[in-house]
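Lab meeting, item 3. Inverse folding demo.
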C-alpha cells in the first residue's frame, strides 16, 4: 500500500466478510459494513490494486475428492545453495501431490504438505519421486491426526 493509504475499520470489515464469503455481492457487502455500494466498491478495488486482496478462489474439500491423507514432510538438502534450492523448487512445482511448500529456517530446508488418496499413494510418491529429486539429503514425515484450526490469511 502507498504510505498515505491506511487500513481502517471499514477495510478490515471488508476483508473479514470477503474471507468468509468471496462471492458476496457488493450490495450485501456494503450493507454488512454500513457503507453505500459505491464507496464499498472503491475500497474493494483499492484493496485489490494494492495487493492486499490477491484473488478469489473456492475452498475445496480434499477428502471429498478422495485425498484422505495429508502428510507433512520436512526435507533437508545436501547443500543450501541457490541452484540446489531452485532445482528442488522446480521439481516440487511439478508434483501435484505437493499442495504447500515452504522454505524454512532451522534444521530442515523445506516443509511440504502432501495430499494423497492413502498411505500407499504417499509411499509411491515418497519412494518413487521425492527421494529421487537431486540434492535431497534426508526426509522426515509426520501424519496429522486431525485439524484443530483452519484459517486463511490473518486479518487485523
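The presenter then showed the designed sequence:
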Amino acid at each position: 500500500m502507498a504510505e498515505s493509504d491506511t487500513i481502517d475499520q471499514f477495510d478490515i470489515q471488508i476483508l473479514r466478510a470477503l474471507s468468509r464469503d468471496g462471492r458476496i455481492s457488493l450490495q450485501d457487502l456494503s450493507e454488512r459494513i454500513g457503507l453505500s455500494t459505491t464507496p464499498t466498491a472503491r475500497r474493494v478495488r483499492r484493496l485489490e490494486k494494492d495487493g492486499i486482496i490477491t484473488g478469489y478462489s473456492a475452498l475445496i474439500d480434499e477428502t471429498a475428492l478422495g485425498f484422505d491423507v495429508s502428510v507433512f514432510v520436512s526435507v533437508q538438502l545436501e547443500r543450501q545453495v541457490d541452484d540446489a534450492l531452485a532445482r528442488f523448487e522446480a521439481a516440487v512445482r511439478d508434483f501435484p501431490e505437493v499442495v504447500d511448500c515452504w522454505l524454512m529456517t532451522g534444521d530442515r530446508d523445506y516443509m511440504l504438505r502432501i495430499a494423497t488418496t492413502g498411505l500407499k499413494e504417499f509411499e509411491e510418491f515418497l519412494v518413487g519421486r521425492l527421494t529421487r529429486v537431486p540434492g535431497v539429503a534426508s526426509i522426515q514425515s509426520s501424519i496429522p491426526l486431525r485439524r484443530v484450526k483452519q484459517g486463511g490469511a490473518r486479518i487485523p
